[in-house]
Amino acid sequence: MKSKNENLRKKFLIYGFGKSGASCFKYLNKKNQCFIFDDEKKKISNKFKKFFISKSKLLNNNFDNIIISPGININRCQLSNFLKRNKKKIITDLDIFYKFNTENLTITVTGTNGKSTTSKLLYNILKNHNYDARLTGNIGNPILDEKRVNKKTIFVVEASSYQLAYSKYFKSKFSIIINISPDHLERHITMKNYILSKLKCVTKQNKNDIAIIANDSLLKNFLRSKNIKSKIIFVSKNKYEYLRSKLNNYNFINSINFQNINFLFELSKYMKLNLKIVLKTINNFKPLKFRQEIIFTSKNLKIVNDSKSTTLSSTIPFLETNEKIYWILGGLFKKGDKFNLNKKYYKNLEAYIYGKDRYVFFKLFKNKFKVNLSKDLKNSLKLIPDFRNLKRKVTILFSPSAASFDQYKNFEDRGKEFNALIKQYLQK
């Protein structure tokens, strides 16, 4: 890779032509020679098909860099052997961004649960301080699509383990790891690989950078084995407990979201942000779609759509209550996931499980609390007692704790169906 004042290289293969792949092509193609490959050629629009290179031709080409999209699994794709032979050439859109924007203040947010909400909240906080902030990465626009960037532009980058795993050069002034628990092990294979991918946002930092990390024994153990140059700050889950009383936003009073904003309180000190503005922004924040989103509330009933939940660890904090919960979940069980809910909450819990891996969940819960099984989400709702005439407080929590791909395109489709089904039920 060359310096920011030179072209990265002259010949690029862009593998995976989704949003990030398309943004890389548009960013680089004017001054470089770019080729496109995607396992599903039919998804490439006619405008770009002339840049598509066949598998047989690319195998005989010597590319300077291979830009790989986060969705590509190097072990399960058409170019698997080719990528493994050329692993040193693989980079990401984050690497390209960094090489051309080394002077911009960049804040990376990663973790297992809550990174989208934390990133969006940080973006709002910076905007309310009148900064030219951009929300990119795994949320918002692809980072190379941002326009009218100047030296004062601040980038908030939500980084997934997939993005970081393939990145070679990307680093940021502030790196935040809000939590860690088993996830995406079908891709990373081991927990060690998963953690090391997250830690790449820290291991690339230098002595002038700062890492704000969850006070987690797993993270600490791996950090000890690395030559870390940046300043490391460990944040406990309730470090800023004294500020909880100043919050009136329900979405940040519960345990997991409050834990995550502790990192923003810590960051605020180093960026010298105004605490009053920070608190006001938190209290005015509206949750992202399908992330602990309250879609209905009445005297005795609250309905929450948390379709974004794909692991048990992301759901558990919302089960820690003394109110009755009808918990709807199911889909594809995540390898390595664990159910670490305190037994004292079992008495308030009743589960309604659907989807391909419903019997996996059933075995996990059958001796803990009442479990109901059904083939799909619609039938799960039919099994719940009539919740229009309740005599005690009840929460219907749609928090699937599993991947959606057995029955849905993504978590958004899953969330939309839940909302539609609830609307139909309440209108009966």
Whole-Å distance between the termini? 63 Å
CATH topology of the largest domain: UDP-N-acetylmuramoyl-L-alanine:D-glutamate ligase
Average pLDDT value? 92
**Largest sheet: spatial strand order:** 6-7-5-8-9-10
Q: What coarse outline follows from CA principal-axis ratios?
A: globular
Protein architecture, described:
This protein is 32% helix and 18% strand. The protein has helices at residues 19-28, 55-58, 80-85, 93-100, 115-128, 161-166, 185-188, 191-203, 217-224, 255-271, 275-284, 312-319, 358-365, 377-383, 411-426; strands spanning 11-15, 33-37, 65-68, 90-91, 105-110, 133-137, 154-158, 174-177, 210-214, 231-235, 293-297, 301-305, 324-330, 349-354, 370-373, 394-398. The chain starts with 10 loop residues before the first strand and ends with a helix. The strands form 3 sheets. The chain has a 6-stranded parallel β-sheet, sandwiched between helices. Strands 11-12-16-13-14-15 form a 6-stranded mixed β-sheet, sandwiched between helices. Strands 2-1-3-4 form a 4-stranded parallel β-sheet. The protein has 3 domains: 11-91, NAD(P)-binding Rossmann-like Domain (Rossmann fold); 94-284, Mur-like, catalytic domain (UDP-N-acetylmuramoyl-L-alanine:D-glutamate ligase); 293-426, Alpha-Beta Complex (Protein-Tyrosine Phosphatase, Chain A), CATH 3.90.190.20. The chain is built from 15 helices and 16 strands.
